[in-house]
Design brief:
8 helices, binds magnesium ion, six-stranded mixed sheet, binds adenosine-5'-diphosphate, four-stranded antiparallel sheet, single chain, 34% helix, Rossmann fold, alpha/beta
Length: 227
């Protein structure tokens, strides 16, 4: 999908300084990474892509739909995965949580059950279907949160530091899952290995996009900024 960010500056209510400034960018690559220091505006940028944050100035549009006016339609196509899966898991059991994403779609109970079973199997969670979601391990929780988003069949998946709370094994599991996804992905991360093979990497620093290009150059730019 084509994401067009035009003349965007965002200042949160009650704050004086913008957290994203003068941003103009067009994104349509399959794999886009976003890196940068803490507080540089990455999460705000990510949240603007599905209208969770509407910019105070400028426009963000996804396939020509402005997030300011068409937030609900945009969110149907743009799935979002947070750092902390606990903030995303809403139902008591694994299967119920995945089914929750399919509510209000006009599917029969049997259709929902079949879709849930398929997607749990595809992501290696079938044996946990009736387990309490809060008892899963950190990695399994993140897998569940991702599965609950993927069952809604988004065309773009925005992930905000999905591996920050995970150990190395679970980070690899999420990285492998991302690598297999047919969907377009925008991934915010501090784990530079995750974006090394991406098509394009954006570097944010102090509220601005300061580098935009292939991973090698972007990682070099970021390392220099941090040294
Ligand atoms: N909802 C909010 N209200 C006010 N300030 C916020 C909010 N969310 C983030 N901020 C502030 O905006 C700045 C940029 O944050 P953020 O976009 O989360 O950057 P990053 O993800 O790169 O750490 C930070 O100073 C943060 O404290
Ligand atoms: Mg952040």
């Amino acid at each position: 999908m084509l994401i067009e960010v035009s003349g965007v500056t965002h200042t949160y209510a009650g704050r004086r300084e913008p957290v994203v400034r003068d941003l103009d960018v067009r994104l349509e690559e399959h794999r886009i990474g976003v890196i940068g220091a803490n507080g540089s505006g990455k999460s705000t940028f990510a949240r603007m892509l599905n209208g969770l944050v509407v910019p105070s100035e400028g426009t963000v549009s996804v396939e020509g739909r402005d997030t300011r006016r068409h937030g609900r339609e945009v969110r149907r196509d743009v799935g979002f995965c947070f750092t902390d899966p606990d903030s995303q898991i809403v139902m008591p059991t694994v299967a119920e949580d995945v089914a929750f994403g399919l509510r209000r779609r006009g599917l029969s109970k049997a259709e929902v059950a079949a879709r849930v079973e398929d997607v749990l199997r595809a992501h290696g969670l079938a044996q946990h279907a009736d387990h309490a979601a809060h008892l899963l391990s950190g990695g399994q929780k993140q897998l569940l949160a991702l599965t609950s988003v993927l069952v809604t069949e988004p065309r773009l998946l925005v992930m905000d530091e999905p591996t920050t709370l995970l150990d190395l094994r679970n980070t690899r599991m999420v990285a492998d899952l991302v690598a297999r996804l047919p969907q377009q992905v925008v991934l915010v991360t501090h784990d530079l290995d995750l974006v090394a093979g991406f098509d394009r990497v954006l570097v944010f620093d102090e509220s601005r996009l300061v580098h935009d290009g292939a991973p090698a150059g972007a990682l070099r730019h970021y390392r220099e900024l941090m040294s």
